[in-house]
Design brief:
Elements lengths: L3 E13 L12 E12 L5 E3 L5 H4 L7 E3 L3 H6 L10 E3 L5 H4 L9 E5 H8 L18 E5 L3 E4 L2 E5 L8 E7 L2 E5 L12 H4 L21 H14 L2 E2 L16
Parallel strand pairs: 3-5, 5-6, 6-7, 11-12
Antiparallel strand pairs: 1-2, 1-4, 2-3, 8-9, 9-10, 10-11
Amino acid sequence: MAYEVKPIFLGTIDGDQSGFTYMVFPGTPIKLDVVFFLITGASKTILFDTGSWAALMANYWPGKGWDFQTFEEGLAKEGYAPEDIDIIVQSHLHHDHVGNTSKCTNASVYVQEDEWAFCRAPHPLQAGYYPPELYEGWNMKLIKGDKQLFPGIEILHTPGHTPGTQSLTVETKEGLTVIPGFCCTHHTFQNPKEALPAGHPFAENWEVFTPAIATDLCQAYNSTLRLKSIADVMLPCHGPGFGVYPEDNA
């Protein structure tokens, strides 16, 4: 069965490219898409993440954010309301990925056991990304490792960015569509030998880049490589390029 995956663009937040291409291209500003993904074609309505909004993210991230539309407005354009959502696959529990999850009162929320354990006692380097009040009211389904949701839709445990980061693979008419759960951009999946200047010392051994925000950089690299090796279509969770930016954010 072929499903459809649609990114729903909510806004942007400022970042630095080196955060998504470990130690490379520092000082290169980029705009990160704030997005969630709607998966249709199954017997249940599925979201991957729920995004956030600028005022909330400002409490936890130094980059400036802009809102394009609300979560409710983005769903309504597709014919849905928050209460219509049956399943949310939560990539990880950082604030910019879970901001609207509590609004989906009828959804089962799939979270890795390792992520839930870590968020309750996070390392100081990551503690600010995990506001516990955002997890209230969830109908949480804790899982461990990879899990098939439906034939052709599979959750993959892809740790590194956080211990319980998970990604989603979806069989679509374009092939195997992969939504990475770790904070990444399209830059993350470039071939370093092509993206870096000739003779750059990192180009010799790297096959992909990796996000710089990580609890385990080696795991993050391996997870990035795993997803790149299987994807026909890659939908990095922070884009950029999923939406038309507001005029003042161009």
